Amino acid sequence: MLGAVLATLLFSCSAVSGRQLVKWLPGTEVNFWRLTLATLLLGAWAHTMGGGLGGGALAIFLISGAIGFGLGDIALFQTYPRLGTRLTIMMVNCLAPPFAALTEWLWLGNRLSVAEIACGAAILGGVGMALAPGENAHLDRRTLTAGIAFGTLAGLGQGLGAVISRKAYAVAEAAGEPVDGITAAYQRVLGGLFITALFLLFLQRKKIFGAKEEPVSTTPTLTTKERWRAAGPWLAFNALVGPTLGVSCYQWALLTKGTGVVLPIVAITPLIVIPFAIWMGEERPSRRALAGGAVAVAGAVALVLVSR
Fold first, then answer.
1. Residue 4: in which H helix or E strand, if any?
2. What angle do CA 263, 4, 307 make, to 5 degrees?
3. Structure confidence by residue, pLDDT tens digits, 261-308
4. DSSP 220-288
């Protein structure tokens, strides 16, 4: 239980710090460097006290990380500057469970029950309430549309990554080479770092995003050195609390309590983010937006419970 609670708090801190980072640096660049730092920290443990690159499911863990940490987090850091912390985390954390359930149905043959479908509908309804244009008058239509698209991709990446990670654990157990949680996190982050590095190189060569990949700082006259000086502490903090400690606590929780207890706790992360976001000076959500978020989170918790 302690691991799940710590993971929820750490993921909330990661979300708020991630939003601050994209004020100073482009989202893809932020994601690359935070995963690089996390790889070094997790790798130091995995290659000394863990399994390193061993285990019977390295390739599957790498694919899981490429989708979750790679494609999913690339979309996540494109959503932050468009929707803000509260809406971004609500979308990603609440859409990931139904995406994961749908993937298990299509890939592993685990059919959806009526209760699971009802929970998925509640999630989508709550997300729709919170993202209604009238509830987000500070966002222009183009920004809101792009944010919803990127947030949906981020939720899809997280859900797919989780299902593939579960498959990797099963394969490792069947091969008689079980992998501990931190080693699994290290192998997943490696996959994510590879995809992020390729995407960053592609952007730097093609420049296809133009202004969309610019930071959203209110002081655009700052030099690159000044931006890095401002972003450096946030970057180190985000790498530590998110893909390093947060994921490690999450894996520790899964090893001690199981998904039926852990996932409902982690699913309340969007609610924990709200006071952090208000404290950091972001917009104050309306009652309707808060109600929509509460419905979506309740649906996500219920989906996890009925799925077990």
1. helix 2-21
2. 15
3. 566 677 778 878 878 777 777 667 778 778 887 888 888 778 777 766
4. TT--HHHHHHHHHHHHHHHHIIIIIHHHHHHHHHHHHT-HHHHHHHHTTHHHHHHHHHHHTT-PPPPHH
What does the block give as tokens for 92? 């990603």
Q: What angle, rounded to 10 degrees, do the helices at 2-21 and 224-239 form? A: 170
Give me the domain span that covers residue 242.
2-307
Cβ of 210: how many Cβ atoms within 10 Å? 8
**Number of domain units in the chain:** 1
Q: Where are the beta strands (DSSP E) in 203-263?
A: none
- Distance between CA atoms of residues 248 and 250, nearest Å: 5
Cα 218 from Cα 24, distance rounded (Å):
9
Q: Which tokens belong to 156?
A: 């899809």
Reported as type and span, the H/E element at residue 25 is: none
Q: Are 63 and 127 in contact (CB under 8 A)?
A: no
Joined together, the tokens standing for residue 176 give 């008689």
